């Protein structure tokens, strides 16, 4: 149950901030946001405030911000269509009923001759006496159909009506808010728990390990590995991990003197990759400083962004196999493991996950934010947008491929963790 709660809180927070970025920049651009949803599947909680429906859905595996005009959600009234209308005090249509069963006594029925609910905002048709009538449609008119209410979206409130820059920012804002969230989590860790000194000092040497055999001792201050100067513990571990089964020369300061040791890191395999390990432990020390916490938040965010891009590069070049990827099951399992190590470890994991989510969404793949930004780039180069039908087909194919990839990754996670 603790793992379930931790996963819902962590993943839900990341999705919330991602969608919040889309939402705020869309609203800033004047785009109507029809729905702000956290989760996928059936609704378990819904609240309408003004023009936006805020929902929480049953599966905590994603979310979305539905903007007017994005999903062909505008209503077109074809000639001959029978519609019921209700007028406001200015004789503008404020309600339209598209189903035949209407309980409103003030409704007037028209057989539509022509209508434009996007730009011109009018409806013209024959009333029950055969007279041709034309009415202006209110910008806030509501359409009722099969028990559903839909607020019409005048063209200037639709996504496609906005300048290219505003549309691109509304899409880019999702990943951007994931990076901002990661920064503030790292900042909070630095302020609350302190900033790790990250000094390359050995706290403990494991018996019968390569380091023990080479004569390494607790308290050794690592200065150099194979001629490469070392200033941080993370730098030391990264070099060792990259040299499994190789001769490594380590220089360390001990009691004011420089000691040279040669060792061969053991080969450790994880997710199909081989890493070096020499058998030493590190005891982190922390210092509290607002300025250092601010710097820590920025440097950790940039460092993880760089590290994840490096891993993606390794995946593309074949240095990582697809088996190294994790999906929802893997994230769920890892979140439970992190939660067992305390709130600070869980917060650090959430920050790394947030950066992962931001970068994954920026990949130039159909159906992702990066794929949409790629179409905006084409639009900027061509001087006109790509045909909506063609773009929709590309995104549909992309969704199908992503679903297949998700199934493969999820199956690998299930085999890895449960069998």
TrEMBL record:
Which cofactor(s) does the record list?
Answer: Zn(2+)
GO MF terms, alphabetically ordered = metal ion binding; metalloendopeptidase activity
- Where in the cell is the protein located? Membrane
The UniProt transmembrane annotation reads 6-25, 168-192, 343-363, 392-411
Q: Which UniProt keywords apply?
A: Hydrolase, Membrane, Metal-binding, Metalloprotease, Protease, Transmembrane, Transmembrane helix, Zinc
Q: What class of enzyme is it?
A: hydrolase
Biological process annotations from GO: proteolysis
Task: Tell me which domain of life the UniProt entry assigns to the organism this sequence originates from.
Answer: Bacteria
PDZ domain: residues covered = 185-256
Q: Which Gene3D superfamilies match?
A: 2.30.42.10
SMART domains attached to this UniProt entry = PDZ
Q: How does it sit in the membrane?
A: Multi-pass membrane protein
For this protein, the Enzyme Commission number is: 3.4.24.-
| One Gene Ontology term, aspect cellular component | membrane
Where is this protein primarily located?
membrane
In the record, the note on similarity to other proteins reads:
Belongs to the peptidase M50B family.
Mind telling me what this protein is named?
A: Zinc metalloprotease
Species for this entry: Sporosarcina luteola
